[in-house]
Amino acid sequence: MYRNFLSVGGFTALSRLTGFARDLMIGAVMGVGPLADAFVVALRLPNQFRAIFGEGAFNSAYVPTYSRVLIAQGHEAATRLASRVFTLLLVSQIVLLAAALVYTNELVALIAPGFSEHPEKFALAVGMTRITFPYLACVTLATLHSGTLNARGHFSVAAFAPVLLNLFVVAFLAVAFLFPNAGAAACWGVTASGVAQLALLMAEARRRGVLERLAVPRLDPDVKQFFGALGPAVIGSAGQQIAILADTILASLLPNSANSSMYYAERLYQLPLGVIGVAAGTVLLPEMSRRLAAGDERGASAAQNRSIALTFALAAPFFVAFLVLPEETMRGAFLRGAFTAQAARGSAAVLAAYGLGLAPMVLIRSAVASFQSRGDTTTPMLCFFGGLVVNLALKLALYQPMGPAGLALATATGAWINFALLIALGMRRRWFAPDKRLIENIAIAAFAAGAASFAAPFCFYGANQYLGRLPLLRNELDIAVAGLLAFVVYAIVYVLGALAFGRSARKPLL
User: Is the dihedral of CA 77, 83, 88, 92 positive or negative?
Assistant: First the structure.
């Protein structure tokens, strides 16, 4: 499992790093303002539909079903299931794309009602959304191939595919002079990357001998089981997107640049979620599904405990950066070109609020595997809606007095409630059983993060004293050196804590 985690985590890290380079370029070229706000909305619309119908809901229903059929009935039955699902998915995406292109104005008005008061911004968002929406069809079909490959134990190419989005956007921005504006160039890069991702994953599936074919859909027991799990998963994913949609809607009602301020903070917030949380969930779900299908309950529980311990230990340094040095982090990441010091301060408040919910958000994918690996997608849906109610209520209460930071704080609170419900119900059903090693590892990582939090301001002050007068890369080097020093403190305290706890925690992640 660790080899697969490192593979997925490594390629996901590459995706996030190239995504960071993409966002640096977007920030420098577009900054914050009408063009950037319109691009954020144009990118968010297909991404929200993808999250509802694609990655989130689809994988949680498809991977356990495919794994069960593969183990119980063999290769041919699994391929038959995949082909029937592929055909249904293709038809649904064609219908959705046609509807979206016809009703683009209405979709933009729904997701960003505040844009209606700014006709130029609204027109930009509509035009860009028509460019980006085909990306949804391509990447959703690519998700099916990813799920099939993951269920077969092949993770690398599926983990690498998202890197193409960042490379294509950067490449198209480099020739933005060929387009009406930089936003249009970036949007065409998004759509071109969808085609490239689909082609890459189809080629890999063909190489592995698991490429799906067009087939007449039939509601056999396996397909029925898939749709039985997919329904609650879609509802749960839709609920999650409702929360994101609420952010976009309410931010559009705030003064100019609120959407883009949230976007840049979210880019940093998504780093640990994607590199660590999603990577852990991507590997853990098929691992637990295979073990449970073979009747190995203890092995499935052990895999989950190891995943949670590793996830928390790797994510803890990000808690420190987001909560202790949010403005310094934003300045080091984005302060250049059109992204000003004022923009950095606005995004820093959002980043700190997101940081309060980073722990549950990064662990949710591992916690939800207790249910999804057993074919239960209803309980995670209900847990999410428990958090969603509080999330939406807080958004409405906080967005005016606190601005974008209030929206992020509401998201963090909802994440804590969702995670707490998942853990409580998992333990009640005995589907989640934290062992002594897991509790020790979390305690060690939390203590080490506390030590790093205390040391981080001093590390930054020391770095600034030596580097603050540099003519170039001053902000970047300040936060890089301070972050490295704080991480050294974290690593030393973590190792000492593991030794203090004794043999059971000395090798906590193995």
Answer: positive
Confidence at residue 505, expressed as pLDDT on a 0 to 100 scale: 44
What letters, b where the CB count within 10 A reaches 16 and e where it falls short, cover 155-176? Answer: bebbbbbbbbbbbbbbebbeeb
Backbone angles phi, psi at 255, to 5 degrees: -55, 160
Q: Taking the model in full, what pTM does it have?
A: 0.69
Q: Are residues 102 and 248 in the same domain?
A: yes
178 in the same domain as 94: yes
Give how many domains the chain has, as a whole number: 2
User: Could you give the angle at which helices 104-111 and 119-132 cross, rounded to 10 degrees?
Assistant: 120
Q: Are residues 394 and 443 in the same domain?
A: no
Which tokens belong to 413? Answer: 């609170």
- Dist. CA 399–CA 36, nearest whole Å: 20
Question: Residues 6 or more apart from 379 whose CB is under 8 A from it?
Answer: 371, 422, 425
CA dihedral sign of residues 399, 402, 405, 406: negative
Q: How far apart are CA 115 and CA 170, in angstroms?
A: 27
Burial of 471 (0-12, 13-18, 19+ CB in 10 A): exposed
Average pLDDT, the chain: 82
Are residues 495 and 379 both part of a single domain? no
Residue with the bigger pLDDT between 195 and 155: it is 195
**Residue spans of beta strands (DSSP E) within 288-417:** none
CB atoms within 10 A of CB 219: 10
User: Are 401 and 461 part of one and the same domain?
Assistant: no
User: Please, are residues 158 and 146 in contact by the beta-carbon 8 Å criterion?
Assistant: yes
My answer on whether 9 and 102 are in the same domain is: yes
pLDDT (tens digit per residue) in 412-458: 999 899 999 999 999 999 999 898 889 999 999 999 999 999 998 98
- Segments forming the whole domain that contains residue 510: 435-510
